[in-house]
Amino acid sequence: MTRLTVLTVPDPRLRLKAEPVAQVDDEIRTLMNNLMETMYADDGAGLAAVQVGIPKRVIVMDLTDHYPTLKPLKIANPEITWRSKETKVELEACLSVPDQCAPVERHLAIKVKYLDENNILQEIDAEDLLARCFQHEIDHLDGKVYIDYVSPLKRQILIQRAQKVVRMKK
Ligand SMILES: [Zn+2]
Fold first, then answer.
1. pLDDT tens string for the chain (170 positions)?
2. Distance of CA 69 from the midpoint of ligand 1 (Å)
3. Residues 12-169, CATH architecture
4. What whole-number distance in Å separates Cα of residue 58 and Cα of residue 48?
5. Does an H or E element contain 26, and which?
6. Which residues are catalytic?
7. Phi/psi class of residue 88: alpha, beta or left (left: φ > 0; alpha: ψ in -120 to 50)?
8. What gap in Å lies between CA 100 and CA 65, rounded to an integer?
9. What's the 94 CA to ligand 1 centre distance in angstroms?
């Protein structure tokens, strides 16, 4: 496996709309594994291919800390097929906006269909944190970052703070 470099705001590549994959083959499985390794190395709970500069609709998530029975998820072509009317505001963070967080309103529950690492179609009912993570990661595939949900002024501050963190880590 290879650890990849996570792009950070305001990198324009984070704004690309990702293309669906034709099928989950060995190339996509390798990408999924590399995303997993990168996510674990950076202590994240989710990572989208867009965040490493690969505009394909592929994401990985690991929420086993919160859902002990849920295995790490390797996901291609996710599609939200239902959203609850009820929403909830919680703090979100993102490896592309290092060391920052902000409150974001998301649908409390959703249904998602996707292809797993074996190219098998799966459908999952997600609530709370799992639903939030799916919405956050699927946003990345459409070129959206969670800071888009805060005011322009707050967004500018978050970007500046994240840039400062990146500079200090170099
Ligand atoms: Zn993110």
1. 899 999 999 999 999 999 999 999 999 999 999 999 999 999 999 999 999 999 999 999 999 999 999 999 999 999 999 999 999 999 999 999 999 999 999 999 999 999 999 999 999 999 999 999 999 999 999 999 999 999 999 999 999 999 999 999 87
2. 23
3. Alpha-Beta Complex (3.90)
4. 6
5. helix 26-41
6. 137
7. beta
8. 21
9. 4
